[in-house]
Specification:
There is one protein chain. The chain is mostly helical. 66% of the residues lie in helices and 0% in strands. Helix 1 runs antiparallel to helix 2. The longest helix is centred in the middle third of the chain and has 23 residues.
């Protein structure tokens, strides 16, 4: 139960960075922290204590506790999709900052 609270605390740290900070780079870091916290929470939801990988074999005669593979697949997809635009953020943020803070 404490790990769920820590994931929510991590999300709140990222939310603090988004809402309070004025620097665009710090806001982007806050968004990344929030994304990691949500991925962590989804991974924790799918975890079962004492669970085995969800691979059925012929030797399994009795039912066993398995981890839920759906949250793991969703987190893996979210990580891949979330990492794609991240290299574009710093140049865009730098260009935005230069264009909006230019003195005339």
């Amino acid at each position: 139960m404490i790990v769920y609270a820590l994931a929510i605390l991590l999300f709140l740290v990222g939310l603090y960075g988004v809402l309070v900070k004025r620097n665009l780079f710090k806001i982007l870091i806050g968004l990344s922290i929030m994304e990691y916290a949500i991925n962590l929470l989804f991974s924790l939801i799918g975890y079962r204590s004492g669970g085995v990988p969800p691979i059925l074999t012929e030797s399994m005669k009795q039912p066993v506790t398995m981890v839920d593979p759906i949250p793991q697949a969703l987190v893996l997809t979210a990580i891949v999709i979330g990492l794609e635009p991240r290299p574009c953020w710093p140049p865009l943020a730098l260009g935005f900052t230069r264009n909006t803070t230019r003195s005339t």
